[in-house]
Design goal:
Layout (H helix, E strand, L loop, with lengths): L6 H14 L9 E8 L11 H15 L12 E6 L5 E7 H7 L5 E6 L10 H4 L8 H4 L7 E6 L40 E6 L2 H6 L16 H10 L3 E6 L2 E6 L7 E6 L8 H14 L3 E4 L12 H11 L3 E5 L17 E6 L3 E9 L4 E5 L7 E8 L10 H4 L5 E5 L14 E7 L15 E4 L4 H10 L4 E11 L6 E2 L19 E4 L3 E4 L7 E3 L3 E3 L3 E4 L2 H18 L5 H10 L12 E2 L5 E2 L2 H4 L6 H5 L3 E2 L4 H10 L4 H8 L18 E5 L6 E12 L5 E8 L4 E6 L2 E4 L5 E11 L7 E9 L5 E10 L5
Parallel strand pairs: 5-9, 5-10, 6-9, 10-11, 11-12, 12-21, 15-16, 16-17, 17-18, 20-26, 29-36
Antiparallel strand pairs: 1-3, 1-4, 2-3, 7-8, 13-14, 13-19, 15-19, 22-25, 23-24, 26-27, 28-30, 30-34, 31-33, 31-35, 32-34, 35-36
Helix pairs in contact: 1-2, 7-12, 8-9
Length: about 750
């Protein structure tokens, strides 16, 4: 801090300093600088910061109108900043800037720079901020180790560059396993381990030849998930010009270890188990596994089995819910792991359609080329417009063809005269596929009459299309993706799954150049360093990265505590502050079985207020309550040290699910007991707020929880009373513990449903 001067002296000194900037030769190179100032040192005669800064700039001009070389002063104030920061931007020479650094009130300055849209934009959508919240609190996940169990890694990807990384933690026990086109030097301070497991594949097909017998990823899936979770910064990333910006993972300073268990030649549980087991032995902190096994009970599910041992050792496991939508219930409905559903982000990809009459319309496209369509004939023919017949399409005139249905199969449009296509969409809230192999755009039904009317008005109608545009701020967002699998989980329906929703649609991340990312036409495949794909496989590593950040900020938290923090702070509202919608249900309000508690909120999860914790014995008590044998329990727990003297299906979980028997009349009652731990700063009080599911009465006792200190535990009971129904009716609500000072709200979803069958 500089000394405080009286107003007159301060004004004089500021004027002298600014005047001295023009003593000597004026630097020929001038730039815009952002200058941070200490507002508390502003002299009183000035009415405000803008007056102070503009007066200084005017003083420069009047005192030194020209430099000794005859150049006219071009010092210019651009912006005054007084909300998010204090200071200004101005055009200055380097010499002027150096002298300004001696001025009272000066804090710092740096050259202005071009701004780009950040990708995966999801870190912005998740409100991760370098100045505050979970990123700085966790040091960006530094030294937390994420084990990615998947299809391997492309080590040359820029996402796995180790710049800015410190030495590998001494607790790391893993290695970089050599193999085909993969040597140990390919690992570094970011990618600290790589192993591969294919004995299961070889055993199933003894005579098989493994095409890439190493941890090298030739599929792309593993590279994509690893870079999403913890990729380093990569400037200039894009999907053929779309989503251009700086790519980085959710936890960009975390370490990565990859375990290749998925092969083009087969995908076997034995290999998956081996990979997860090795990850735990190597010392990872988080396991990210974007795969699952359908129609298997817990004691036969390799992910359930391996993740129990991981949880025992303090390793957090994040899994994907599956991509079968309503056709098949979710997998990974495992009580001791995080199960992640997929949603959209507030980003869309566009092309601009400009009609010959000057009307401009924004449509959707991801056509992967930098070319453009310019002043071509625009054609609309009701006979051809369904665009569903090769014979009809062969009769299309030269130019741009208008089609009535956005689900037109573009790969069948191979007629040389069709230079581009405009299709009319049903205006879904989001598109989920990157496949757009033919020049064209999808326009909304509200814009279609304008385009069709113009095309029909004259034989000389023309249009132009420009591609590769990215639009941010799309509303509503997020929405639940159509493809994400829904709960309840038949493997164990007594726990509400999924737990949370994370970004999963059109996520940009690194890719293997050995695998196509998209195509043009029906037979031209394109490769690239980055790919933009959709799935719960993409949502899972987002949650894995968040878990790594939370582990970095709270190393003392158990995996269950981290899960609880993510669930109770998830947001059930979209960016319009309305309930999140479900694309799979025609944009109806999303149910907890589609999105869990809501969309993950990393910064709120850093400070959840209360957590629902559980021990390995608590999970063993749940297994003991199931209709399975002792040996089946031991398959999961691996130890006789767990007692079955207190079996209980009422796990201390941060959500509630209750079932009634269909066609059975009468009022049904289900009681839950929960224990919450105060992880806030000290003594506090919480009051309960209940939003009961339709047709149910919720009773909570006590209604107030009073904590005297940090880490203190309190118990409460929640009772659901509801009427059985003759038809399949589901309803949902929530319970929220609200701190007296409003600093914390701890929300848990409640779901009431007819009984489901267990696998």
């Amino acid at each position: 801090m500089g000394m405080v001067l009286n107003d007159g002296v301060a004004l004089l000194q500021l004027a002298l300093v600014l005047s001295s900037l023009y003593v000597g030769l004026l630097s020929a190179e001038r730039s815009t600088y952002i200058v941070h100032m200490d507002k508390s040192l502003m002299p009183k005669p000035f009415t405000g910061p803008h007056h102070w800064y503009s007066s200084a700039i005017d003083s420069i001009k009047s005192t030194n109108p020209t430099a000794s070389i005859g150049q006219k002063s071009t010092a210019k104030l651009l912006y005054t900043y007084d909300s998010a920061l204090h200071g200004f931007s101005a055009v200055l020479s380097e010499d002027e800037l150096e002298d300004l650094k001696e001025s009272p009130g000066f804090l710092s300055a740096y050259r202005d720079r071009q701004v780009t849209v950040d990708t995966t934009h999801t870190t912005d959508f998740l409100s991760l901020d370098p100045a505050t919240g979970l990123w700085p609190a966790s040091n960006y996940g530094r030294d937390v180790i994420i084990g990615v169990v998947d299809s391997g890694v492309w080590p040359e990807s820029k996402s796995f560059d180790d710049r800015w990384m410190t030495e590998v933690p001494s607790r790391w026990k893993g290695k970089c396993e050599e193999g085909q086109e993969f040597n140990s030097s390919m690992c570094n301070l970011k990618l600290i381990g790589a192993r591969y497991f294919n004995k299961g594949v070889r055993a199933a097909e003894p005579n098989i030849t493994i095409s890439m017998n190493s941890a090298r990823d030739v599929d792309g899936h593993g590279t994509h998930t690893a870079s999403t979770a913890a990729g380093n910064y990569v400037e200039g990333a894009s999907f053929f010009g779309y989503a251009f910006g700086t790519a980085r993972g959710v936890a960009p300073q975390a370490r990565l270890a990859v375990y290749k268990v998925l092969w083009k030649e087969g995908r076997y549980a034995s290999d998956v188990l081996a990979g997860m087991d090795q990850a735990v032995a190597d010392g990872v902190d988080v396991i990210s596994i974007s795969m699952g096994f359908d129609f298997v009970p817990l004691h036969e599910d390799p992910i359930a089995i391996a993740s129990f041992g991981a949880m025992e050792k303090g390793v957090f496991v994040s899994t994907s819910a599956g991509n079968r939508a309503f056709r098949r219930p979710l997998h990974n409905g495992i009580p001791w792991v995080l199960t992640v559903a997929a949603g959209s982000v507030d980003r869309s990809f566009a092309g601009t359609l400009t009609l010959g009459n000057g009307v401009t319309i924004i449509g959707w496209t991801t056509f992967p080329a930098s070319g453009f369509i310019k002043n071509l004939s625009l054609n609309y023919n009701k006979t051809i417009s369904p665009c569903n017949s090769t014979e009809l399409l062969s009769k299309a005139p030269y130019g741009i063809l208008i089609c009535d249905d956005y689900e037109t199969r573009f790969t069948e449009i191979d007629e040389p005269d069709i230079r581009a296509v405009i299709t009319v969409g049903s205006e879904p809230k989001t598109f989920e596929s990157n496949s757009f192999p033919f020049p064209g755009i999808i326009i909304s039904p509200k814009d279609a009459p304008t385009v069709i009317k113009y095309a029909s008005s004259s034989e000389s109608a023309t249009a132009s299309i420009k591609f590769q545009q990215t639009i941010l701020g799309k509303k509503p967002a997020p929405v639940v993706s159509t493809y994400t699998s829904r709960g309840p989980s038949p493997s164990y329906p007594g726990i509400l799954k999924p737990d949370v929703m994370a970004p999963g649609s059109l996520i940009l991340a690194s890719w293997s150049p050995e695998s196509y990312v998209t195509n043009i036409g029906s037979n031209i495949g394109l490769t690239g360093e980055f790919n933009m794909i959709s799935g719960t496989s993409m949502a899972c590593p987002h949650a894995s990265g968040i878990a790594a950040l939370l582990k970095g900020a709270h190393p003392e938290w158990s995996p269950t505590a981290i899960l609880s923090a993510m669930v109770t702070t998830a947001n059930p509202l979209d960016n319009t502050l309305n309930p999140i919608q479900d694309l799979g249900l025609d944009s109806a309000t999303a149910m907890p079985t589609a999105m869990g508690a809501g969309h993950v909120d990393p910064n709120r999860a850093l400070d959840p207020g209360l957590i629902y914790d559980a021990t390995p014995q608590d999970y063993a008590n749940l297994l003991c309550s199931m209709n399975i044998t002792q040996n089946q329990i031991l398959t999961i727990t691996r130890s006789n040290s767990y007692s079955c003297s207190n079996p209980s299906s009422d796990l201390n979980y941060p959500s509630f699910i209750a079932f009634y028997h269909e066609f059975k009349e009468g009022v049904l009652v289900q009681k839950f007991e929960r224990t919450v731990t105060n992880v806030g700063p000290g003594a506090t009080k919480y009051n309960v707020k209940v939003k009961a599911p339709k047709g149910s009465v919720i009773t909570v006792s006590p209604k107030t929880l009073v904590f005297g200190k940090m880490q203190e535990k309190k118990n409460y009971t929640l009772t659901i009373r509801y009427n059985s129904h003759e038809e399949w009716i589901v309803s949902f609500g929530s319970i929220t513990w609200v701190e007296n000072n409003g600093n914390h709200t701890v929300r848990s979803p409640i779901y009431v449903s007819p009984m489901v069958e267990v696998w």
